[in-house]
Structure formats: C-alpha cells, structure tokens
Design brief:
Length: 470
C-alpha cells in the first residue's frame, strides 16, 4: 500500500469514526466480559472458601473451648482411619514451630515455609499452584487461634481453577470475535454513512473544475444527509440561474445597446463632418438624447427582468386595490386610445384586493395596455377587466387587434423577441418578458390566447389578500 493511500486512510473521517467506535466497542465489551468473569469467579471461589471457613470456625471453636491440645487430638482422631485425607491441616505454635501437619499424599510439594509466613502475617487466602504441567492447585486459609497458635487449612481447587481458565479462554474468544465483527460492521457502516459526504465533495470538486451542471446524487433515504444533498442541489440550481441570468442580461445588453450606440455614433460623426446650422446641431443632439434614453430604458428593463427572474427584485408588498389601479391605468392610456380611435373599456368589480407591489402592478398593466393599443386597428376596442377567482385576483386585457400567429405565442415572453409583423411598431421586445418575470416574482402568472386578425387576450393573476405572495 503506498504511503499516500495510507495517509488518506488515516485522515479519512470514515477511518477516524471506525477507530473511535471500534475503541469504544472494544473497551466496553472488554469491560463487560471482565466484570462477568470476575462475578463468575467470585461465585465459584466463594463456594470453596465457604468450606474452608467452616472448618476454620469449627477448629477455632474447639481450640477456644478446650485448648490447642484437644484440637490436635480431635484432628488426629478424625483422620485416624483416613489414610488419604482430602484436605490439609497444619497447626503452628506461637513461635511458628510445627505442632501438627496433615496433608494428602500429593501435597508434599506445598511450600510449608511460605505458608507458615503467610499465616503469621495474617494473609487470609493463599493460592498455590504446583509448577509444571498437570501440577495441583491448592488454596489455603489461616487463622490465629485464641492461644496464639496458627491454624492453616487448605483444599484442592484444581478443578475450579481449570473451569475458570476455560471460562477465560471462552470469554477471550468471544471478545475477539465480537470485536472483529464490531470493527468490520462499523467500518462498513461508517463507509456507507459517509458516502453522501463523498458525493458532495466530488460534486464540489467538479464545480471547482468548472462543471456547473454537476449535482449531488440523492438517495431518497429522507435522512439529514439526503436533505443536505437536496438543499445543496437547490442552492446550485439557484446559483446557476443567477449566473445564467447574468450571462443572458450581458448578452442582451451587448446586443441591444449596439444599435442605439451605432446610431448615436453615426449622428455624432455626421454632425462633426458636415457644417451644420444651429438648428441642425440641435436636431443631432436631440437624436443622441433619444438614443441615450433608449439605452437607459433598455438597461433598466433588462436589469428589472433579471432581478425579477432571479428573485432579487425588491417588492414592497401591500394590500393593493387592483380595481383602482385598472381605473388609473385606463385613464392614463385614454388619451393614446382616443388618438388612435380605439375605445378603452375598463371594468372591474369593487373590492378587488391583491398582495402586491403597486408600482410593479402599474408597470404590468401599462405594458399590456400599451401592446393592446399598439397592435389594435382604429375603431377597435380594448377591454380591461378584473375579478376575484379561487382566492386570486385576475385581470384580463383583451384587444381586437392583429392577433399573434400560433408559432409566435410560445416565444413572445422571451427577452427581445418581437413578432415579424411587429417590426413596424416601436418597441424593444422586452415588455412581455418584464410582465411575466414581475408576475412570477409575486407568485402570479400570465396566459395568452390569440387569433390572427381577431385579437389577443392576456389574463394575469396575482395572489389575493389572504393568499401567500411571492
Ligand atoms: P414589443 O416591444 O415588441 O411590443 P413585447 O415583449 O411587449 O415587445 O411583445 C413581444 C411580441 O409579442 C411583440 O413583438 C408582438 O409580436 C407580440 N404581442 C404582444 N402583445 C400583443 C398584442 N396585444 N397583439 C399582438 N401581438 C402582440
């Protein structure tokens, strides 16, 4: 394994998680097994030690009531017929000289000196294991008697110690198995849990390399990491939209400004080359001012569209009387309508309230009315009607003008799109894009139906009072 790979593994969160959980797991399973073993060993040992303690108590009582000589007599008599006693007894006088030793045959190797020292020091339990394979294991307990003599009693505990050793082996085996399984499963789980984070990192890397289309795959697991992936994707979506908006706006600005700028340049060059009269110069300046105004309007409208589309347009939302705005806009366009010989018919039920930015709603109505009058023939009518429907405010702007060809309808809301026949009319091709973007920013929308030669009908909606806006 190369050192860089080892380094990566060491620094990866998955291995850190596995190591910490593995450590916790090993520590807690070891702790549990040690506790279980100690409890078990205590229970088993207590059984043997109870027998030795009983013997000590019995002999202690005899010595206390009848003296050490009687005790020795008692023990000797007790073991007279027993050629092979199964327990060990040793009595020492206060100066640690041997008074009696009864030991089963196999116990000859028991280190009596050490045993005597332990007894004199008051050590309660003394375990001695015969060295070498298959040697015996003995446990002794001692007591200082009333006369100052020392009494040592012992028993064979080989079977018990073998059983405990077997338990130790079993516990160790289980601990190792549990730890290996635990660490293995932990590693797989940590690896799986961190897979979404790795996806996130690789997506961020792809974006860093310039691929804005990269997205984090979601697994549909509905957990926090999946939610993070979805949120990250929607954030990317939004950023892409903003970037796209900026790119489009820049393209459109470049495209749309070129014409008025070229015209202004031509006017300036002509004015500079020819010997113009005062009046001629004045007209040239007026032409330049007009182109300048056109550039300003285009820029402002493009910026408005971008802001509305990307959700950064500031809207002063309030309770807006849409019926009042329809009346007001109709009044403004009445003069233009009369001039073109068109009848403007405003009509809306009172109590038509929307949650909107009044200035932006005026802008929407102005654009739609402007188009309706622009594309109408003299003698036609233009209707502006407002009503409430499904908690929304709807407004219809209908004309009896030239209509929109079917193939143009899907494109009229695009920026800078102008119908072929519209080229003879003034316009930037930005009005409807702005209308749609502004309505969308409010949480509303616009629909169009049109028939060539018969007229067009635009219906837009805004959230009514009580409906969420934007
Ligand atoms: P313009 O400045 O060209 O009017 P708009 O964005 O307002 O730009 O409209 C886009 C195109 O939609 C127009 O060029 C025209 O072809 C078509 N259009 C919009 N409104 C109407 C209407 N009321 N009647 C016929 N055509 C229309």
């Amino acid at each position: 394994m190369s050192s860089s790979l080892l380094d990566r593994i060491r620094h990866s969160t998955a291995s850190k998680l596995t190591a910490s959980y593995g450590f916790l797991y090993i520590a807690s399973s070891l702790f549990l097994f040690v506790i279980a073993y100690m409890l078990l060993a205590n229970v088993v040992r207590a059984q043997d030690q109870k027998l030795l303690t009983e013997k000590l108590n019995e002999y202690g009582y005899i010595e206390r009531t009848k003296g050490v000589g009687a005790l020795i007599e008692f023990i000797r008599r007790d073991n007279e017929e027993d050629t092979e006693p199964d327990y060990f007894v040793r009595i020492l006088d206060p100066a640690r000289r041997e008074l009696l030793t009864i030991a089963p045959p196999g116990w000859s190797a028991v280190p009596k000196e050490e045993l005597d020292t332990q007894a004199a020091e008051g050590v309660k339990w003394y375990l001695w294991e015969q060295p070498g394979l298959g040697g015996g294991v003995y446990e002794f307990s001692s007591r200082k008697l009333a006369s100052g003599a020392f009494l040592i009693v012992g028993g064979d505990v080989k079977q018990r110690e073998e059983l405990l050793a077997e338990f130790q082996r079993i516990f160790l085996g289980i601990t190792i198995t549990v730890v290996v399984i635990g660490v293995g499963v932990g590693a797989v789980l940590a690896n799986r849990t961190l897979a979404p984070i790795r996806d996130l990192i690789s997506t961020v890397n792809s974006i860093g390399r310039g691929s804005m289309a990269a997205r984090v795959p979601t697994r549909g697991t509905d957990d926090e990491l999946d939610e993070l992936a979805s949120l990250f994707n929607s954030m990317l979506e939004r950023i892409s939209l903003l970037i796209q908006g900026m790119r489009d706006a820049l393209d459109n600005v470049a495209h749309d400004l070129r014409t008025p700028l070229t015209r202004a340049k031509a006017v300036v060059e002509t004015a500079l080359q020819s010997n113009l009269s005062k009046q001629g110069l004045r007209e040239a300046l007026m032409d330049i001012a007009e182109e300048n105004e056109r550039i300003r309007t285009t820029l402002n409208t493009l910026m408005d569209i971008s802001e509305a589309e990307t959700g950064t347009m500031h809207l002063s939302l309030e309770r807006v009387d849409v019926a009042g705005l329809i009346e007001e806009s109709a009044e403004i366009y009445e003069y233009l309508a009369q001039e073109k010989g068109i009848i403007l018919v405003p009509d809306s039920s009172p109590g038509l309230y929307a949650v909107a930015d009044a200035g932006r709603v005026r802008q929407v109505l102005a654009n739609l009315l402007d188009n309706a009058l622009k594309y109408s023939k003299p003698g036609g009518q233009v209707f502006v009607t407002g009503w409430n429907e499904d908690g929304q405010v709807r407004v219809l702007v209908r004309d009896e003008g030239e209509g929109i060809p079917g193939e143009d309808i899907p494109r009229i809301f695009e920026r800078l799109y102008r119908g072929d026949k519209s080229r003879s009319h003034r316009g930037l091709g930005l009005g409807l894009s702005l209308v749609k973007a502004v309505l969308k920013a409010h949480g509303g929308d616009i629909q169009v139906t049109s028939e060539v030669g018969k007229g067009s009908e635009f219906v837009f909606s805004l959230p009514g009072v009580g409906q969420p806006a934007g």
